[in-house]
Design goal:
It contains 12 helices and 9 strands. By secondary structure, the protein is an alpha/beta fold. The protein folds into 2 domains: 2-219, Alpha-Beta Complex (2-enoyl-CoA Hydratase, Chain A, domain 1); 223-269. The strands form 2 sheets. Strands 1-2-3-4-6-9 form a 6-stranded mixed sheet, sandwiched between helices. It has a 3-stranded mixed sheet with strand order 5-7-8. A hairpin with a 5-residue loop joins strand 1 (20-23) and strand 2 (29-34). Helix 2 packs parallel to helix 4 and helix 6 (164-172) crosses helix 7. The longest helix has 20 residues, at 94-113. The radius of gyration is 19 Å and the shape is globular.
């Protein structure tokens, strides 16, 4: 246990280079803001890499317990930058192309594996790789103006990108996913809500506060147990019913030896609100 604690480090003041990073006063909730509003917040090679590394390393965070992922000035993310990513890709050889596509997939893998719950706050354009960042998040709040498009086919590519063909059907169903991935059309906010892609629609002026409030409620809750839930969501996709039940039995038994489990009982018995500590 002492070795594990020695590996933990604070992330409140993470020195982001290719997006904005801001932790709240508690340090428990951090907001990632994709911040190239003049181009609707596209991704570059560098921002892909930094997102991958950040989400990979967040497993060692001693403070941050939940993440809000959003974009600046009324848009979420327009995908890969046309001139900084798409154009260079047209000149690359296959080994370099494969290295790139594997790297972008690692962003999704790191998001799914980090223990923090990720709340995407989506306004305006949410397209291509931006749609995949939203999909890889754990919860999604959106405005009525949000338009989400997995537009890979619009640029002559397969809809199979960054795990889209596996992840999207699990969220909205095979037929709806096929519609979006074959046509590349934009999914409206109302469709996203009806199909289960969005958890809730909120007015643009309330989006940031609503996302932070949700993330803070998760960060103040039994966040170790939330991390276990996230892990089981990922692992059980490939399991049969018997394996699911056994895996969840083991996971829940682990949670039952945490102090948070005891704190919840003691608070309930005392008719108080539990103060979770994540251990």
């Amino acid at each position: 246990m002492s070795e594990m604690k020695a590996k933990l480090r604070p992330f409140k003041d993470y020195p982001a280079k290719h997006f904005r990073w801001q932790a709240d006063d508690s340090g428990r909730v951090a907001t990632i803001t994709l911040n190239r509003p003049d181009k609707k917040n596209p991704l570059t090679f560098e921002s892909y890499e930094e997102l991958r590394d950040l989400f990979t390393n967040l497993k060692s965070a001693s403070d941050v317990r939940a993440i809000v992922l959003t974009g600046a000035d009324g848009n979420f993310c327009s995908g890969g930058d046309v001139f900084e990513i798409i154009e260079p890709l047209t000149r690359m050889a296959m080994p370099d192309l494969l290295a790139f596509t594997r790297m972008t997939g690692e962003v999704v893998r790191a998001m799914r594996k980090c223990p923090q719950i990720i709340v995407a706050a989506i306004d305006g354009i949410c397209a291509g790789a931006g749609a995949m960042l939203a999909l890889a998040s754990d919860l999604r709040l959106a405005t009525p103006q949000a338009k989400t498009a997995f537009l890979f086919t619009r640029v002559g590519l397969a809809g199979a990108d960054m795990g889209a063909c596996g992840l999207l059907p699990r969220v909205i169903g095979q037929g709806r996913a096929a519609d979006l991935l074959y046509t590349g059309r934009a999914m409206s906010a109302d469709e996203g809500l009806a199909w289960g892609f969005h958890n809730r629609l909120v007015p643009p002026a309330e989006l940031a506060a609503a996302a932070h409030e949700l993330a803070r409620s998760l960060a103040d809750g039994p966040w170790f147990a939330h991390g276990v839930t996230k892990t089981m969501f990922n692992q059980e996709w490939a399991m049969g019913v018997d394996e699911m039940i056994e895996s969840e039995a083991q996971a829940q038994a682990i949670c039952m030896v945490t102090g948070d489990f005891r704190r919840a009982f003691d608070a309930f018995a005392a008719k108080q609100k539990p103060a979770f500590e994540g251990n």
